[in-house]
Amino acid sequence: MTSLVFSAQQPEPINELYVFGDSLSDVGTVFRATGGMYPPNPTYFQGRYSNGRVWVEYLADKLHLSSKQTNNFACGGATTGSGGNSLVPGLLTQVQSFTQTHQQTNPHALYVLWAGANDYLQGVSRATVPVENVTEAIASLVGVGAKKILVANLPDLGQLPSTRTSTNSANLSTITQSHNQGLRRAIKQLNQQYPDLQIASLDANALYREAITNPAAFGFTNVISSCLSGRACSNPHQFLFWDGIHPTTAAHRILGEAGFSAIQDGGMVDSRPMLLK
Questions:
Q1: With a threshold of 0.70, does the pTM exceed it?
Q2: pLDDT by residue, tens only, the chain of 277 residues
Q3: Residue 29: helix, strand or coil by DSSP?
Q4: 47, 95, 44: which is closest to 71 by C-alpha?
Q5: Which SS3 state, helix, strand or coil, does residue 149 take?
Q6: 222-226 and 198-202 as β-strands: parallel, antiparallel, unpaired?
Q7: 235 exposed, middle or buried (CB, 10 Å; 0-12, 13-18, 19+)?
């Protein structure tokens, strides 16, 4: 007789979500700071840099977390550093603000970091410092007790609608590759440094590449240009890009599901039963 039982090693459920990053994860930080002026509504959906919800919201759905269990510090325009201004704190500043007020944080929460694109789009030509900044941000969170971390790499910044025909396209593609390689090495080192840390990677680069190579598999018909060009297109769910830089909510949904798969593969969530004979 075969019975279905759950593994005794099933992890503690994730009961909170903390998000740090830029416009790809911002759910209204800049919108509130500018009194609802930016990003303009209704062109952009309720403070998101997209036409609907963004990937961390879809991820929260998969984790069965309410908006009260989600703490989002991501800020449109943020770089990885501690520079910027009070309106647009960088990734390190976001994390530093958090760790200063949370000397001991929730070990059963998931901490999400995604940043770096703005560094390179604003002219940073070497990946060294942005990768160091992301690594430092992760180490700071671990220092106050974070145990579960999800970090995303960068899509090919030379293949965005706003960059693909520019003279800087090839440079941006090269620096993206350099960033992602550096980030992969840094994550490996962090795993060695903190043996009880669970750190998962969202390979956004591979997802975008697959979508551009095989759009039909994702339900897309346009993966080159943006839906929003003067006015919005009539079929945004078939577009990878909402504007020249940011994905549509349809693409965000795919990213959120991939993020969930990454933490599942990393052993942070486990809904899969084991077969015992």
A1: yes
A2: 444 444 445 778 999 999 999 999 999 999 999 999 999 999 999 999 999 999 999 999 999 999 999 999 999 999 999 876 667 999 999 999 999 998 789 999 999 999 999 999 999 999 999 999 999 999 999 999 999 999 999 999 999 999 999 999 999 999 999 999 999 999 999 999 999 999 999 999 999 999 999 999 999 999 999 999 989 999 999 999 999 999 999 999 999 999 999 999 999 986 554 444 3
A3: helix
A4: 95
A5: strand
A6: unpaired
A7: exposed
DSSP-assigned letters across all residues of 56-112: HHHHHHHTT--GGGEEE---TT--SSS-B-SSSB-HHHHHHHHHHH-SS--TTEEEE
The 10 Å Cβ neighbour count of residue 43 is 12
Structure tokens at 240: 């990878």
Tell me how far apart the alpha carbons of residues 235 and 93 are, in angstroms, rounded to a whole number.
Answer: 38
Q: What is the total residue count of the chain?
A: 277
Reading the block at residue 44, the tokens are: 């952009």
